[in-house]
UniProtKB/TrEMBL annotation, chain B:
Membrane topology designation: Multi-pass membrane protein
Domain of life: Bacteria
Source organism of the structure: Paracraurococcus ruber
Keyword DNA-binding on entry: no
Keywords: Amino-acid transport, Cell membrane, Membrane, Transmembrane, Transmembrane helix, Transport
Protein name stated in the entry: Branched-chain amino acid ABC transporter permease
Localization per Swiss-Prot or TrEMBL: Cell membrane
């Protein structure tokens, strides 16, 4: 159920002035409402992706609204739970836009839901800032003038984690893949990388989302004699698979494991004992530099013990940039056309504490560096959430799929 | 290397063994459900949440009180069993005279509340719980590496299932229980405190779920959803075995574990569905289930 959570920075004087300027319309409360930018955070509040999106994303969006300060904008934040169901997600998006006047939809984990919402937002010419879904199709064949894909995608994960594994000698791969849009995209993108570097994909199994026992798949992976087992899944699925990889002693016998998507919250759930030595890619880590630490200190008191992951940082950064663009062009114009608001966002360089300086490409891809991390051993970690050491940084220009290769119809080759 | 159905024989043996291990979990959980349904006529939808509580109780004992796995194996079921007894006294006992549906709705609601509370408190990513040192490592069976812990799970599940079956089918206490389900008024007339017996039975069924949770904690992610992923499958197991049939639920649990394991080799995408297909077929052919009495 959508539940309104208001977060307004009202500037009644400004609103009154605008109303008067518009030809002496009788001033009503509704006038101020009409200029309010309504941001809808649509994510998983109650299921497997709650910790990597959920209430923490909402807190980060509100932080962005607060950090922008009053620049003549009224902003209201609403929240809904899409329950990881594409039909529920697209229905809420429709209801929000048609009935409740929502201008921006933010976050939307789960690639299947994310793609469904992508169509709805485009059709109604609003703004879609996706942070937590992974599929690179959002800026590929399904790219839209109304969409910005902020934090990460399957291609970038494949390049960073997959590329590093192949370079280290892992030239034959077996995939354990979540059987839906996200898993397929991640397996495809990583497989392409492996093959491009003369590696081989010797097999793959696709498991249903929410599978509990991976032993059967692990034994299949092992009997394929692949050097690397690639986990193309996320959240609880990944945690279960990694726990059982350790149990079956697969890593101890020399097979490498590529966890293609892992968030710091997953590492927390696994514990360092089980997760140590795993390699993963993120675009934000709370302890990366002074600015990320400052952001974390600011937002942490509102998170009920959770730690911001890259997905949360993406919500913050995306909303902050959108509000800057909206303040720049005027709330009325930003509300009138989502595509124009996104075009303005693309024209302005991005700048924030989480990702530093960056930009948004024509296909809607936000560009910033990606970081390859290794999970620390219990001895190396100084305390809770001190989990990563930086192995390598991929510069922004190389981190994401080249513009021409995405098959995005918005890009003229 | 010999191939069977296009799959190398060693791989197939490995899968059979792993299926048996997963079947042990199904058997253990469906056993508790069968006991509760057979003796109380309550469809306990909170069983998955109670399985999860068992795993969390083990985590809390370790992290808050420093109590390790072996003690938790005994303490966690007692703690969770007591919460079950409180639930039975406060809510469930009021529903025995009503249709099954009320019990189902009540326990389903309780499950949602319990899971929601745990999710709010502990998040959804899960908590770490290590395999006890005595049971870590793996045996090389020639055709696969078999983690010691999985072997222990099968043994523990077999002992538990057998003991429960013996208690209910072969002891005087079991006879009272069975008699009470047939005709409670008559058994009470013989001086047996039937309401207390029913309460304790529910507590015992819940404790069985909690043992499953403790056994699962080292190998599955300990998170608030861990039970809801399993419970639907376990319900299918109980339906296939015949609602309320204890032996039926044990045998079906192990058998369906194997079927699911094999599906993971031949058609992994369907592994979540296969049990429900079997359920549909069994219900068409034998509406009372394989071991149920019509």
């Amino acid at each position: 159920m959508p539940q309104p959570m208001t977060n307004r920075r009202s500037l009644i004087a400004g609103a009154t002035a605008t109303a008067t300027a518009l030809g002496g319309l009788p001033w009503r409360g509704a006038r101020a409402q009409a200029n309010t930018l309504k941001i809808g955070v649509l994510n998983d509040q109650s299921g497997v992706y709650r910790d990597i999106s959920g209430p923490t994303s909402v807190a980060c969006v509100r932080q962005a609204v607060q950090d922008l300060g009053s620049r003549g904008l009224n902003v209201e934040v609403v929240v809904a739970d899409h329950q990881n169901k594409p039909d529920v997600g697209s229905n809420i998006a429709r209801q929000w836009i048609d009935r409740d006047g929502v201008d921006v939809i933010v976050d939307v984990p789960n690639s299947a839901v994310a793609l469904a919402v992508n169509g709805v937002v485009r059709e109604r010419n609003k703004v879609y800032l996706n942070s937590t879904a992974a599929t690179a199709d959002l800026t590929g064949p399904q790219c839209s003038p109304n969409t910005v894909h902020w934090t990460y995608d399957t291609w970038m994960l494949a390049r960073s984690t997959g590329g590093a594994m192949v370079k280290a000698g892992g030239d034959s791969w077996f995939f354990i893949t979540a059987d839906y849009a996200f898993g397929h995209a991640l397996e495809r993108d990583t497989g392409n990388f492996v093959k491009a570097q003369n590696g081989r994909v010797v097999g793959a199994v696709r498991h249903p989302l929410g599978n509990t026992d991976y032993s059967s798949f692990l034994v299949q992976a092992q009997s394929s004699r692949a050097k690397v087992i690639g986990l193309a899944n996320a959240g609880t699925d990944t945690v279960n698979a990694v726990k059982q990889l350790a149990e079956f002693g697969i890593t101890r016998r020399g097979t490498k494991v590529a966890v293609l998507l892992m968030f710091i919250n997953d590492v927390h759930g696994l514990g360092l004992q089980a997760a140590q030595g795993l390699v993963c890619t993120e675009t934000f880590y709370w302890d990366l530099n002074d600015r990320t630490r400052a952001f974390t200190n600011k937002v942490r008191p509102h998170l009920a013990g959770n730690m911001p992951a890259m997905s949360h940082a993406g919500c913050y950064s995306a909303v902050l940039h959108y509000l800057k663009a909206a303040a720049d062009m005027g709330a009325d114009k930003a509300k009138a056309s989502g595509a124009e608001a996104v075009a303005r966002m693309k024209a302005m360089p991005t700048e924030d504490d989480c990702f530093g300086a960056g930009s948004i490409r024509a296909d809607g891809r936000k560009i910033h560096p990606s970081y390859l991390f290794e999970v620390k051993s219990p001895a190396e970690s100084k305390g809770p959430w001190d989990y990563y050491k930086l192995l390598q940084t991929t510069p922004a220009e190389e981190a994401f799929r080249p513009l021409a290769e995405g098959a995005c119809p918005l890009v003229r080759s | 290397m010999d191939d069977l159905f296009g799959i190398p024989a060693p791989l197939l043996f490995g899968q059979l063994l792993l299926g048996l291990i997963n079947g042990a979990f199904y058997a253990m959980l469906s056993l508790g459900l069968a006991v509760i349904f057979g003796l109380l006529n309550i469809v306990n939808m909170a069983h998955g949440a109670q399985f999860m509580m068992g795993a969390f109780a083990a985590w809390m004992l370790l992290n808050w009180l420093g109590i390790g796995y072996w003690a938790a194996l005994l303490l966690a079921p007692i703690i969770v069993g007591i919460t079950g007894i409180i639930l039975e006294k406060a809510f469930i006992s009021r529903l025995y005279k009503l249709d099954h549906l009320y019990g189902l709705l009540l326990t389903f609601g309780l499950a949602l509340i319990i899971e929601g509370v745990f999710r709010n408190e502990f998040g959804s990513s899960g908590l770490p719980y290590r395999i006890p040192a005595e049971l870590s490592g793996a045996w090389d069976l020639g055709f696969m590496f078999m983690p010691v812990y999985r072997g222990w799970v099968v043994i523990a599940a077999l002992i538990l299932c057998l003991a429960t079956w013996l208690i209910i089918e072969k002891t005087r206490l079991g006879a009272y229980l069975r008699a009470a389900t047939e005709n409670a008024a008559l058994v009470q007339a013989f001086g047996v405190n039937v309401p207390r017996m029913v309460t304790l039975t529910y507590g015992f069924g819940v404790a069985l779920a909690a043992v499953g949770g403790v056994l699962a904690a080292p190998i599955y992610s300990v998170n608030p959803q861990m039970g809801s992923n399993l419970i639907i499958v376990v319900f299918a197991v109980v339906v296939i075995g015949g609602m309320g049939s204890i032996l039926g639920s044990i045998l079906t649990g192990f058998a369906l574990g194997i079927v699911e394991g094999l599906t993971k080799v031949f058609w992994p995408e369907a592994s979540a569905t296969v049990i429900f297909v079997i359920m549909a077929i069994v219900l068409l052919a034998r509406p009372a289930g394989l071991f149920g009495r019509a």
